[in-house]
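Sharing a chain and its predicted structure for anyone who wants a worked example. Both blocks are below, sequence first, tokens second.
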Amino acid sequence: MFLMTTTKATAGDLDLRLKEAEEFEKKGEFHLAEQAYKEVLKHTKNPGLWGALSWTQLHQGLFKEALSSAKKMRAQLQKENSLPLLASATALMGFIHHQAGRNNLAEKYYRESLKEYPRAEVYILLGTLLKHQGNIVEAKINFLRALEIDPSFVEAHYHLALWYYEHQDLHRTESHLEKALQQNPNHISSLSLFSLIQWKNGNKGMSKSKVLLENIIRNSAGNPISYLILAFTLLLMNKKFLADQYFRKGLERFPQEPRLLLAYAWFLSEILDNPLDAETYYLKTIETSPEWGVGYFYYGRHLLNQGRTREGEAKIARAKSLGFTRSISPAQG
């Protein structure tokens, strides 16, 4: 599997431990995955495992440790004749610096990675960094370079669409969003931006968004956000009972999705004037995501509207304690 230098006596045990590490990662138990990868690395030399270890540490916010592991991966690859893998290790170092807010170092390693071996993903990372730094022209150049490498790359189309949207070129925005959605109908960021643009185009645009979302749900079962956006699109078209149907269909498909639960709770309370059922879904939202401040805020506001002042204020205080301090719509939350 990943084992390169080990003894026959330990190979089976290490392979089993490696599988456990991968399972821990899938479950989001990154501290356990980190321990497992460290155990395997005591007995085998594989740069890919240093990279895997680095990711688990990064997920835990352990920037120093993640960077140390990525450096070991890169140092090992510098001894081998594999520029694509070396470039991946260099980009990982850049990404860790980026996540830690060290933008100058992130830019340095992204550029170095691209010199070693150009990859579309790294052009997107560099372009996004440059855009946030205000270098919008070079950001666009990097997004275009990503597209040159891979004309079907969804993230390249999305970031170009966003760039054009921010510069009020709606024709090119829609063109790139449509190409992104052709490649991946469930790309949530593209779906959200496409629908936002169509909502601003009145009934004609909302009908276009409705058709697209219905096709996505019909052909691929959709994702939670496709149901949510379709329901709100129908609501904007004054088809609240059809919107109700799609909320329910979405929750049948994704019963534990907090954004759908919260949006439906809000819909029941504010649109259908059904406070009892609304409270059921507010409670489900909190049970599903007990650390999500948005759910507490909207539940608290619902309780205040029902005259349950003490309970409502307590829920809003809980939302603030979880870092939620501003009012946004359930769809955005």
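Comments welcome. Residues 5 and 34 are 20 Å apart (CA to CA).
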